[in-house]
Amino acid sequence: MAYQALYRVWRPQRFDDMIGQEVITRTLKNAITTNQISHAYLFAGPRGTGKTSAAKIFAKAINCHHQQDGEPCNECETCKAITAGTLNDVIEIDAASNNGVEEIRDIRDKVKYAPTVADYKVYIIDEVHMLSTGAFNALLKTLEEPPANVIFILATTEPHKIPATIISRVQRFDFKRIAASDSYHRMTYILDQKHVTYDEQAIKVIAKAAEGGMRDALSILDQALSFGDNEITLDNALLVTGSVTHELLATYVQQVLAGDTKAGLATLQSVLEAGKDAERFTEDIISYARDLLLYQQAPKLVEEAEMGSVSEDFQALADKTPATTMYAMINELNAIQQQMRFTTHPDVYLEILTIKLAEIGRTQGASAVASPPAAPAGGPVQTPATADTVTALQHQVDQLKVAVQQLEQAPVAKPAARPAAKPRVNATHTQEVNLAKINPVLGAATREKLNQLQQVWPDLLNSLTVTQRAVMKVSQPVAAADSGVIVAFDYSFLYQKATTDQELTDALENGLDRMVGTALPIVFVPKDQWPEIRKNYLTAHKSELKPHTEPQPVADGTGPSSTAPTTDAGAPVAAPNETGPQPPQANPVVTKAEELFGKNIVDIKTD
Ligand SMILES: [Zn+2]
């Protein structure tokens, strides 16, 4: 006999076999025993929480002549036929594959006929939110004039997508996520029945990874079973779920909370090298940090969720870490998690994350450990508002620091520049950019030099330490001359980090010395400010950039440039397309820009 998936074999056949939905099963059994059955039900809830199982049990119970206390007998012909899916009067429709109006029209035609064998005709429409508007309208017509002895059970993971007109005509049940402990007990029960040996820790890992879905839990269990020889080991469970051991997680969180960037990055490295999934790891840290936070307020809850006790490491961390630090960490984790969805290089984001978390640990964790514990169990509750306020204040202090630095560095810097060339960058997000170092490089920059630097850049980064590489991974040279190189950063946070790290600058310059023969001075800029800086330089030096030769055609990519606004500083480079098609004409700024940075990147917009 072919192997049958656990979730099929162990699909509940009675309401009492269902896990974690006691309120719903009691209500449904009660409706059956008191014969108060509705014409239409909506079973809403996350995947794998028992919606279709409940629907089938319900279909059996109302049709079974040996029904007892609202439970089907599972022995009679009707029950058996429904379990096997061979009873014509119980019709299962997957709206995800049958979403046409025709299918529902078909129901409307056939619904008029009385059930052939059973007492009730039952339509189970799974993923009902997938129906088209037309199909919903057809369904609504049927629900408005329900024929006798016909029952609709609509199941969905996304009830908000169902029209209100439908919702108002159904009796709604919301299925809960299944608690990890419930899922744990169900799995150990099944394994005991199957005489499979297992490591309890392994089952806990699977229960947590399934995130409230019983079907997912059993599918993961199936995979773990296929790995081992009739036993479930912790290693296999970790492998199948892509989870990180509790110990490794604890180590990582301890390291970043202690502000030890280097150790944190090393641990991260070993996690990734072991083939762990970056998103899974982020998820694991989030749940670990949440547990720490929760443990401070309600230790019992966490112990229950952990199905027993928590480790000493965990307790120690929870005791000494202020809630504000935890909130700051979780905010950071959530932000990174969002960004990771859109990248093909999640590893890079994890490294950035590690640096940021260690920064939080350094600035908040350490100082606060010396002060009285922030939120002893049962003590005053730290609200998220407090954490937000602290973060906001921290942000303001940082901005002020930057503003002061700017004033110190360039007190009379730009009065000579024409007003139009003044940076339009908003003061609040301007960081100290060293124009005194940037402009000379721009003045002498060549495309050739930039090409050379871009070629050696990956090798240069490889020569750095793990920590340094993590900072530099999102950087790239954007302009180069024999007198220096300008390097842009995707994240202003990393830009700041790099600017204040003399060791890093030394390492980069020494590396360049080895690779290109000169220790070129390196200047950093945040990428979001780079187009503005470059444009300001080019427009301010326009007179020096006049081409000696005849006008050349403007490059592709830049679009036709306009004749009128060339005297208006910034217009040609900033918004070449603004005035619509115009006769092509060489623009000294554009030409010079192409010369410096290549044709394909000249049309970068300023905003
Ligand atoms: Zn029966």
Automatic annotation (TrEMBL):
CDD domains the record matches: AAA, HLD_clamp_pol_III_gamma_tau
Molecular function in Gene Ontology: ATP binding; DNA binding; DNA-directed DNA polymerase activity; metal ion binding
Compositionally biased region (Basic and acidic residues): 592-607
A cellular component annotation (GO) from this entry: DNA polymerase III complex
Signal peptide interval: none
Domain AAA+ ATPase intervals: 37-177
Keywords from the named record: ATP-binding, DNA replication, DNA-directed DNA polymerase, Metal-binding, Nucleotide-binding, Nucleotidyltransferase, Transferase, Zinc
E.C. number: 2.7.7.7
Pfam families in UniProt: DNA_pol3_delta2, DNA_pol3_gamma3, DNAX_ATPase_lid
Protein name as it appears in the record: DNA-directed DNA polymerase
